[in-house]
Amino acid sequence: MKDIIVQKFGGTSVADTDKIKNVAKAVIRERALGNDVIVVVSAMGHTTDYLVKMAKEISETPSSREMDMLLSTGEGVSIALLAMALQAQGCPAVSMNAMQVGIMTEKVHSKARIVDIKTDKIRQHLDKGEVVVVAGFQGVTEDFEITTLGRGGSDTSAVALAGALKAKRCDIYTDVEGVYTTDPRVVPTASRLEEISYEEMLELARVGANVLHPRAVETAKQYNVPLRVRSTFKLENLGTLILGVEDMELHKPVTGVASDLSQLRVVVCDVKDNPGTAAVLFNGLAEQNISVDMIIQSYARKALNTNDIAFTIDKGDLDKTLDILEKVKAELEFSNVFVDDKIAKISIVGAGMIDRPGIAATMFKTLADLGINIKMISTSEIKISCIVAEDEAKQAVIGLHKIFHLDCDEIAEVKGDLPDLD
Ligand code: ADP
Ligand code: ASP
Ligand code: MG
User: Fold this and answer.
1) 14 and 166 Cβ atoms separated by less than 8 Å
2) pLDDT over 70 for what percent of the chain?
3) Shared domain check, 381 and 298
4) Are 110 and 40 found together in one domain?
5) What CATH number does the domain containing 126 carry?
6) At 330, is the pLDDT very low, low, confident or very high (cuts 50, 70, 90)?
């Protein structure tokens, strides 16, 4: 039996018909190596953004079911065009949407999780010698409702297919040459990583390195799928390999720096300091499927029996959050709500920071030296995040990238120590 390779091409890689023809060449090249190939594609260029814009012009609050019906059409266009491009270049190919494949998800619109992938139809096509071109980002529920996996979700479609079909590797082709120590479009001196562990990549993706969808990394880790991020436009480069190695570059405490501008901070002031207050507030948010990232409860003002609770959420969840706060106001007796939507979350990530004291202190000192005020802090074993003002984000990332020796001139020395890739 041949090995299966899953190739995923993002929006910029299929932005126009010439680029789609170019992608077809990359697919044929992989097939010529003797592999069965499944290709997952995103919508062309900025199609998804354009569809979102149109929906907002029609309604301030479009229903999430109709949003999924609308957004899933973008990927439908690119799969058909890529299958045609492959056929035109003499390669047997067939396009399939999520319903045709059976990419089954939970019944949640706009951020559904994949629960199962049927493999029989895909296998039938592969057995006929065809390349199967699958629509990323979309799924279907048991009762044939169309869902989507969240922005950037095509990466997750690709990895989940690779897991279900026991593929040898999943290659994520994009517009940069791999995973870098920070976004190379923001910091031109960012260094490309030869390898990175699932754990570090997962943290980086969660804190804003949008080169990979976090759930794609989670799924790759769960099913042990070797994952590569590589360039559509430089096919000969192997990019970055994401795999289960724990001890890479541990001589460096920090592997990457990321910023995330998608959140805002809500401060609920003068909440009664009673048992159950946080439970009422956060249960209300959870019931509406609102994810809360950082939470800080201030030291209680004993005389008044009150304190403040601050938390961060996605900007898109603000209206729903304010509605919930209005509903619990009488019960929690808070004085007012303060919303700060000009924030950025700046994070440093690295398995090498475990048991290495002083990393947080270095981060805070670096920000202080730049005159940047920290509004919130959170940590995990291999990550430290700070909320700062949005307009200070770039300066913070550049400063931290430098202080932790991640600039490419410094990393070049380190690269010599890394094992060669096959
Ligand atoms: P695609 O359309 O191929 O899915 P994305 O725009 O989703 O592409 O992801 C690629 C982009 O991710 C790059 O253009 C880059 O600006 C951004 N990015 C953010 N952080 C990183 C990082 N650490 N390494 C590489 N790229 C990053
Ligand atoms: N087209 C979707 C988006 O723009 C999914 C993806 O590109 O991964 O978010
Ligand atoms: Mg993407």
Assistant:
1) no
2) 95
3) no
4) yes
5) 3.40.1160.10
6) confident
In angstroms, what is the span from residue 229 Cα to ligand 2's centroid?
Answer: 16
Same domain membership, residue 372 and residue 273 = no
Asked if residue 258 belongs to a domain, the reply is no
Distance between Cα 81 and ligand 3 center (Å): 20
- Residue 91 has which token pair? 């390669």
Could you give the CA distance from residue 390 to residue 404 in angstroms, rounded to a whole number? 22
Among the candidates 287, 307, 334, a domain finishes at 334
Asked which of 334, 353, 383 is the last residue of a domain, the reply is 334
9 & 61 share domain: yes
Residue type, 347: S
Which residues lie across from 296 on neighbouring strands? Answer: 310
Q: What is the residue whose two structure tokens read 């979102």?
A: 52
My answer on whether 305 and 400 are in the same domain is no
Instruction: Report the SS3 class of residue 332.
Output: helix
Averaged pLDDT for residues 350-371: 93
Q: Locate 259 and state its tokens.
A: 């910023």
CATH number at residue 285: 3.30.70.260
Task: Count other Cβ atoms within 10 Å, centred on residue 167.
Answer: 24
Asked whether 153 lines ligand 1 (CB < 6 A), one says no
> What is the Å distance from ligand 2's center to 262 Cα?
16
Range of the domain at 281: 267-334
In a domain, 419, yes or no: no
Q: Report CA(71)–ligand 1 centroid distance (Å).
A: 21
Q: Are 217 and 198 spatial neighbours (Cβ–Cβ below 8 Å)?
A: yes
Count of the separate structural domains present in the chain: 3
146 near 107, Cβ under 8 Å?
no
How is the chain split among helix, strand and coil, in percent rounded to 5? 40, 25, 35
Q: What tokens does 180 get?
A: 């870098």
105 strand-pairing partners = 114
Torsion of CA 252, 254, 255, 260, to 10 degrees: -170
Q: Quick one: pLDDT at residue 96?
A: 98
Task: Encode pLDDT of 109-158 as tens digits.
Answer: 998 999 999 999 999 999 999 999 999 999 999 999 999 999 999 999 99
The H or E element containing residue 161 is: helix 154-164
Which of 75, 176, 230 to mutate to test ligand 1, by most ligand atoms within 8 A of the CB atom? 176
The answer, yes or no, to whether any atom of ligand 2 lies below 6 A from the CB of 151, is yes
DSSP, residue by residue, 117-148: E--HHHHHHHHTT-EEEEESSEEE-TT--EEE
Measure the CA dihedral 311/314/318/323, to 10°. Answer: -70
Residue 248 has pLDDT above 60, yes or no: no
